[in-house]
Hints:
The structure holds 2 protein chains of 2 kinds.
Chain A: E1 4-10, E2 13-19, H1 25-32, E3 51-54, E4 57-60, E5 73-75, H2 88-95, H3 105-118, H4 124-131, H5 142-161, H6 165-178
Parallel strand pairs in A: 1-5
Antiparallel strand pairs in A: 1-2, 3-4, 3-5
Chain B: H1 17-22, E1 37-43, E2 49-55, H2 57-60, E3 65-69, E4 95-96, E5 102-108, H3 111-118, E6 122-127, H4 134-137, E7 151-159, H5 162-168, E8 171-179, E9 191-196, E10 202-206, H6 211-222, E11 229-232, H7 245-261, E12 265-268, H8 271-277, E13 283-292, E14 298-310, H9 316-326, E15 335-344, H10 358-376, H11 380-387, H12 407-418, H13 420-429, E16 435-448, E17 457-464, E18 470-474, H14 483-495, E19 502-504, H15 523-550, E20 557-560, E21 563-566, E22 569-575, H16 576-586, E23 591-597, E24 602-604, E25 609-611, E26 615-628, E27 634-644, H17 651-671, E28 676-677, E29 680-681, E30 700-705, H18 722-739, H19 750-758
Parallel strand pairs in B: 1-12, 10-11, 14-15, 18-19, 27-30
Antiparallel strand pairs in B: 1-5, 2-4, 2-6, 3-5, 7-15, 8-13, 9-10, 9-12, 13-14, 16-26, 17-18, 17-23, 20-21, 21-22, 24-25, 26-27, 28-29
Helix pairs in contact in B: 6-7, 10-18, 12-13, 14-15, 15-16, 17-18
Amino acid sequence: xxxxxxxxxxxxxxxxxxxxxxxxxxxxxxxxxxxxxxxxxxxxxxxxxxxxxxxxxxxxxxxxxxxxxxxxxxxxxxxxxxxxxxxxxxxxxxxxxxxxxxxxxxxxxxxxxxxxxxxxxxxxxxxxxxxxxxxxxxxxxxxxxxxxxxxxxxxxxxxxxxxxxxxxxxxxxxxxxxx
Amino acid sequence: xxxxxxxxxxxxxxxxxxxxxxxxxxxxxxxxxxxxxxxxxxxxxxxxxxxxxxxxxxxxxxxxxxxxxxxxxxxxxxxxxxxxxxxxxxxxxxxxxxxxxxxxxxxxxxxxxxxxxxxxxxxxxxxxxxxxxxxxxxxxxxxxxxxxxxxxxxxxxxxxxxxxxxxxxxxxxxxxxxxxxxxxxxxxxxxxxxxxxxxxxxxxxxxxxxxxxxxxxxxxxxxxxxxxxxxxxxxxxxxxxxxxxxxxxxxxxxxxxxxxxxxxxxxxxxxxxxxxxxxxxxxxxxxxxxxxxxxxxxxxxxxxxxxxxxxxxxxxxxxxxxxxxxxxxxxxxxxxxxxxxxxxxxxxxxxxxxxxxxxxxxxxxxxxxxxxxxxxxxxxxxxxxxxxxxxxxxxxxxxxxxxxxxxxxxxxxxxxxxxxxxxxxxxxxxxxxxxxxxxxxxxxxxxxxxxxxxxxxxxxxxxxxxxxxxxxxxxxxxxxxxxxxxxxxxxxxxxxxxxxxxxxxxxxxxxxxxxxxxxxxxxxxxxxxxxxxxxxxxxxxxxxxxxxxxxxxxxxxxxxxxxxxxxxxxxxxxxxxxxxxxxxxxxxxxxxxxxxxxxxxxxxxxxxxxxxxxxxxxxxxxxxxxxxxxxxxxxxxxxxxxxxxxxxxxxxxxxxxxxxxxxxxxxxxxxxxxxxxxxxxxxxxxxxxxxxxxxxxxxxxxxxxxxxxxxxxxxxxxxxxxxxxxxxxxxxxxxxxxxxxxxxxxxxxxxxxxxxxxx
Lengths: 179, 759
């Protein structure tokens, strides 16, 4: 098999890598870049433990091959906290005991981030759909659910506090209605 | 200790939470060592047979291969097991007993190379007709899977005079119940990494549940003294009883290969390997007969339980005892006879899984309680309440508890909060031809501690540094259940230290005392007691030192908020760091190793009558469901779970256990079944084996009951396992109620519901 050169940006850092076309994004992250926060649970895209964001979209890193990520931007769990402080989702997961063994947590957090990025005030059904691709065997999902709702609220309040007057109030009201 | 508690009973997040949400927590497969090799086992692929010849030559010549390990290369006895009979070879042959038997281990530079080479091993196997039916396996003329025959273990429980009891009974109900194989399906597949050290020792990093058990087996099988083997447990991605035997096999093989090669060797199971090569929950066949008086008083019960143990004994003997003791349920039944057996078959071996025999027998028992209520025309809640165990009454083993029997309280809480009469009215009110609603109840109990499984001792260390921070070590392991957090809370409470100042180290067999396996919901109860004891001694040092500093007797001092202060005059206070520093320079001990030993089980081994467990967790579950009779899909509309936990050290952690175990119970009762065909598993992946997802989550509401036990720290009793059985049985009874059909086999999948509806 012929080697292949790809250019990717991971958590804000650019990398040029020599790899092979049959290698999965998961292998590149875990082995080449030693970003082991992304986990392998099933290898066939069913458990979502390897969920990362590729150009903002949640994907299973075990189902994507090296050529498919050439030139794209990837965010992993290691890049979720900014400037040393936890992302509101991370804090909410801790506060709500939203994990036990923690193995699914990186994937769960990335799926939740993808959801809240495009839909800042999701309904319960939208949260359910947004996270349905990530399996957790320890919790009953209830505490995860509460954590995501809480983080959405926290993120929105941060966003709203930056918007003047009626626009902010309107967003806050819409959020309340969505609940 | 003066009330109120500062830390105990407070809802706190996990103390290792930041590591877990940032991806910094390293699991075994995440560890990197230079020069590491990858290893893959070649599995038999045939359920039963005789290995005539194993040709590994082509594999040895494959690219990247450095070693192919065969039975002849193993320095030790090539045998593992939990307790006698130790009957599982690391590498099998000539007898093949199930398709997942490992025949050889291929070690190569990369995973791909190891896998490719493993597929080039040629195994000539003369196949046998596999013995798959546990009842057939017990026939006198059945082929023997092991030299001593196919009966793995058998035990009996006798209480009162069961014949006399049935003779007296006015009503008798009798049925046979079956359960299926459930996989642990922890998200992290099993992994080990064996590293030969420069001082001649061997370090094995393992996603394991019982590090000392692993150390012993690795030592024997590699020919090293146990003290020359160190097992380190990194973060573990769930275990639920499963990361014992399989990891023992992997650790021993990786250890042998690493020592031979002088290089680190890693084995990481694929999901398929996890299904084929680990242990699962015992499938069970339970004949159950219950006799009662017309007023509902149960007077006799007889049970014959057959557990399908698969190819090797593993934990079967202990699961036999647990099923035996729990089939009577949480009821006072004067006359009992239970026969429980485990049998070998040519299937994947069964071992420990959360609940340990209790979910199977609770399903049978609670189904039969409903059948009895129907036959007697009695209310299901009243029948349970009428027979419920209370303080001072003899349970199935004739053990009498004088405290901490909270069953009736859980029944009352569920009745009250659930509004039982309203549930009954609602159950069929909205029924239409397509959707049927029903309500189910289940009461249960589960023994806490090793009980009949042997001595129960846990070692813990507590060390206070001069800066007032605390390091806790415990011989039991964090598997995700939150035990490190609970242990930190216990130490924090006793030492008056804030939670942030406490570290609970991960287990490494060099630094903690052998405390047996992390099983039987015993960590908080027996382990927590050890931390409690270790912390008390250090507390005494701090009190005496602070007394000297504040010129007061030690009895007048209290510890709290990182300070020592006079109880009567809290303004007179000194930061704990100063007290600890002074204590160090004065020569007071600031570290202690303590052992908690649960009261020994004392019982008659022929009848299982006597003192067995140090406490029981009691629980009542209620579920309301809606069944779609067109698709067989079940929607759980409401789920109340009440458990007597003695004392909730961390309410958030307890909630997590109740919700998680309940959902695993729903999987057991409704979704999950390892399917085999001619002894080969045909759903060894997460596409075909379905564990509950977000879509199936239960609307669990936990209703705590706290009847303290003096055998646990602050009164606490374990909660890791019990809700699984309660939720599964309540689900079964709710679906049976909705459809008016008694389901006697788990799981009740949508398919089985449709089949039952078609009659």
